[in-house]
Each structure stands twice: as C-alpha cells, then as structure tokens.
Amino acid sequence: MAEGRQGFVNHLSNFVNALIHLAPSRNYITQFLYVVKMNGSLDYEIVEEAFPEIVKDENTRDAFARIFGISFSDKVTLERNGFGWVLTEFIDIIFKLFENADFRSKVGVLLRDEYPEGLPNLVREWLEVRLKGLASVPELGDDAVKVLKEIVRTERIKVDDLERSLNISRGRIIECLRLLELYKLVNKEYDNSYRPTEELQRYHDVLEGI
Fold first, then answer.
1. Looking at the predicted structure, is the pLDDT value of residue 190 above 50?
2. What's the DSSP call for residue 157?
C-alpha cells in the first residue's frame, strides 16, 4: 500500500541508519571484525587488550567464534567466507557508498532534518577513530602521532631519516611504526621506506586535529 513521500522518507531513514550503525566507527562488534580483517591476523594478547568484552570471558569468546567464524589461538583470524568475513566485505561496500559525495548529497536532501550537516563520510570517520585511538595509546601515542605527521609531510621516508628529523631513538621509532602498521595508517615499501595509506592521503587534514 502506498504510504506517500513521508512514508518513503521514513523507510529510507531506517535503511540508511541501519547501514551507518554497521560501520566499525560506530559498532564494537564490526570494529573487532574489521580490525582483524585489516591485519589478516593479530596476536591474541593485542586483541585481548583492545577488545576485553569479547575476548576475556570464555563463554562470550566461544560464542563469538561460532557465530562469526573466528579462530582464537596464538593468532586471531577470520575464517575465510565465514559470517564475519562476509560481513567485513559488506562493510567495504558500505564504505564505498558513503564515501561517494553524490550519494551523500542526494540522500542528504531527503534526510536533511535528521542529518542537517549531511550524511557522514564513514571512511573519513573510521580514519578519525583510528587516529584518536593511536593518540591515546599509553606512553607511545604522542610519539607515534609525531612519526605519522612526519611521514605525511614527507610523503615517503625511511627510519634513518625519521630518526634524524624527529630526534627520537631508532628503537622507539620502530615501535611507533609497528603501531602505525597495526592501525593501517602507513604502508611499508619494498625499499623499507614508509608512506601514508591512500585513506590518510585523501583525508590528511584529519591528522591536523589530533
């Protein structure tokens, strides 16, 4: 039965909100799945520290493993084509959709009352969440942000050059780089230099506010 324009807008709102709330920047479960997927695998200790509500309780962990197809051992991985894997692939589609300015503009016109500032760019939002998480890492976060800003400034740089320009010890720089790779904020090149990820290159202004 036809519900008229307002009925359509209500259904569109429900649909858009459902997609937005699947984003790893807004959903603890999909954040866990997406972080594991981004890295291929993660050390169990890292996952336990980052996601204690999922990992530390044995019953919760086992249920999570069965539902989403996750292997918990020394390394935590997603089983290929398991529900968790499929869900992260769907999130990639959501990211692509909400990064499209034309999509956000057209839908935003209909949902302007709900989103007066426009629909969120979920790719940018997820980057911002990771950068804030990086900055909050105890003892290492501040230096990791300094290293990242230098990599973005130079566009491509090696460890020796980072050590000279930042006056931070080589060992600490390497720790920072490992953290940056974990957060998928830099890529290591064949010549052992580091460069920002494509997302960070597109939205490097987000880093300025960190």
1. yes
2. B
